[in-house]
Amino acid sequence: MRAILLILILMIVAAIAAIATGLIDVSQTRETRVPTVEARDGSIRAQPGQTPRFDVETGSVGVGTREANVAVPKVEVKRDRATVDVPTVEIRRPEEAQQNAAR
Predict the structure, then answer these.
(1) Distances in Å between the alpha carbon of 101 and those of 40, 51, 83, 97?
(2) How far apart are CA 70 and CA 65, in angstroms?
(3) CB-hemisphere CA count at 13 Å for 39?
(4) Is residue 59 within 8 Å of residue 34, measured between CB atoms?
């Protein structure tokens, strides 16, 4: 839940930053009008409302590659032989375990 809330907050901040820097330009081109309903003398008259209209202009972002000289670390791995103790696992059937216990 916290992760979702954090993502929503970051999206809102990104939208505000995009609008503030001019990457997104939003302008309203048509006003909103609420519907009107009138009841008089036993009859009802209604007129529809109007939804707003917006023009949204967005900037563009160019993504590509270019060649550059950068310092890159070089890692070398050398192998050598050594004798070490490693764990072993021995599996015995129940009858073999009883025979070893009796000894």
Answers:
(1) 103, 88, 32, 6
(2) 14
(3) 1
(4) no
Token pair belonging to 50: 């109007």
- Of 57, 50, 53, give the one whose Cα is nearest residue 30: 53
Task: Dump pLDDT digits (tens) for 62-98.
Answer: 899 999 999 999 999 999 999 999 999 888 777 776 6
Distance CA 103, CA 90 (A): 18
Q: What pTM was estimated for this model as a whole?
A: 0.39
- CA 55 from chain centre, in angstroms, equals 27
For 16-77, strand residue ranges (E) read: 24-30, 36-40, 43-47, 53-58
Whose structure tokens read 């070089």? Answer: 74
